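re: ur question from earlier - yeah i can do the single chain one, its not a big deal. heres the input i used so u can compare w yours
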Amino acid sequence: RSIATAMGREFQRMSVGGVRDESEIRGHRRTYVGAIPGTIIRAIRDAGTANPVVMIDEIDKMGADFRGDPSSAMLEVLDPEQNSSFRDHYLDLPFDLSRVFFITTANLLDPIPAALQDRMEVIPLAGYTEEEKLEIAKRYLVPRQVERNGLTRGKIEITEEALRLIIEGYTREAGVRSLEREIGAICRKVAREYAEGTRNRKKTIRPKHVTEMLGKRRFLSEAGRRTDHPGVATGLAWTPVGGDVLFVEATAYPGEGRLQITGQLGDVMKESAAAALSWVKGDVWRFAADIPEDWFANHDIHVHVPAGAVPKDGPSAGVTMVTALVSLITGRRVRSDTAMTGEVTLTGQVLPIGGLKEKALAAQRAGITRVIAPKLNEPDIDEFPPALRKDIEFVFADQVDRVLDAALEGPPPARRRPTPVPAPRRERAAAKRRERAAAKGR
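and the output i got, formated as tokens:
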């Protein structure tokens, strides 16, 4: 609506979420009882002009069935080479849509067909920073909830410290929907006090009142508690609704050198774990020189990524897995104020990733002050808000060695030459492995 106002045009909004019938876009032929034009022509009719701003909401949630595919009908609507002669079935006449300014919204790009994406200019929008949420709450959310709950500015005031507590302790989101719900809950409880006659003067909401009204904090910084022992590293992930923090846990126990991966990981993430373990096996001598040569052959390694009920995939957790494995083997803990993201190769290179801004915002929400990211992503921080660059220290690395130096606590152990395993011992270990393989074959 603001875009339409700035352009001096009429504004119309139409939602296509759940639309499965092509006729909803192209209209119904007049031979049918109850036939009407399609949503595009109806929006232009309601606007009363041929050049309005039309917002097509939830375009990623269109479906398809035996009645047709509405996303295919949208191809002609959004293609500037074809929409000058768009033909609605009800009108049965060509109509010029080239002067209409279309804006579409979506939460996910994947469900949108590639041909339809090709006709759009994609503008990704990152989540809000804490400072932006605070300003939105003060200027917009609080006044709206005060009015909706029958209060006035003279009856309630929410301090800035209380709003910060709500943002940090009771919401963890890219947008502000949950924040508005919590503010609304506070306003309703104050409105009840006035309705019951237990209050007759202005109520000032301070942090202690937030805890009384909303209960104990729902979100606490877990990085310090979760990484207080070796084998746990903090990673960053991208989700359709913003970034998120995840933890990679690794443990080892006597076994046959197998790798077990749990946490509902996708194929790409499983391959990242295998690549991380291969790099550690080949280069661990630089970080744990006194480890026996047959340590990996005589131990199984288990990598788990909580929460187990949430599916996860993607290559950007590679450096986190390497750090967790090296932390496990060397006994050095990972810094609790540090999170990391990046894809790792077998040669120890750190490859660039996407969504760094969303991941950095997630780190900020979780109370993390250092983020390790690929060196090739360094230009991305030019687009970050100043408050985000001030709150978080970014460490850029192009090699895994640099990641480990920045992430692990304490100095590295003295680097001694690997302890060779005596030949008879190696032969016995190899014989045991052959016996186990033969037993499995039988």
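Confidence is low (pLDDT under 50) at residues 415-423. not sure if urs matches, ping me
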